[in-house]
Amino acid sequence: EGIREMFRGIILCSLLFSIIQGTALASEDLPQVLDGLKKAYGHLDAISVPYTREVVTRSMSMLGTQAKGDLAGGTIYFRAPDLLRLEQEKPNIETIVANSATMWWYIPDKKTAYEYKTEEFGKELRLMTNIFRGLAQVEDNFKVTLHGKNSLGEYEMELIPSPPWEEIQKIEVMATDDYHIRTVKIHNLLGSVTIFTLGEFAEIHTLDKRFFTFTAPKGVKVIREK
Fold this sequence. Notes:
This protein is an alpha+beta fold. Helices cover about 15% and strands about 40% of the residues.
């Protein structure tokens, strides 16, 4: 369950909307925003994106800004159409590698690597792919609503899984005026929120497919999950 929660958190990048809404946009502006996102990301073959991740439980959220959730950070690498690598740098070094067949979770401090079938995380992988391709085809799996702009002038979109997911209530995405995704918030049904804050992406022209494969180092225990 630990890897499932971590991967969902990383892959879902919690798309929440701000409590204070700015000027509302007409519903007919949603296609324009989605088209802008696709143009900003859709032509990119491979990118790297720095991220921070915070998990806020329901009890923490009731305390407002006084409570700080579990914090992590690192870099996400993506190559179209479906190759992912996450290099967590803090609080502990960990690596997640996912391709069309296999997903690995490597924890150097424990000298352990977990192997999973990619299909087990099919919905999460599709969402992650959507995010780093500018929400391409997002309307195939989600009901998407544009709520307007927040106090920072960012577009706020709410994604509700369709059909519903067992654990996830909704996902919210914030994007800038120039269609760069900045925040992803994932709300689960128990009231906790995983918040991903994304930095500026960088296009990489030399990211080989071998970067998205994993071979366990000597002395590392491999656990193949069913």
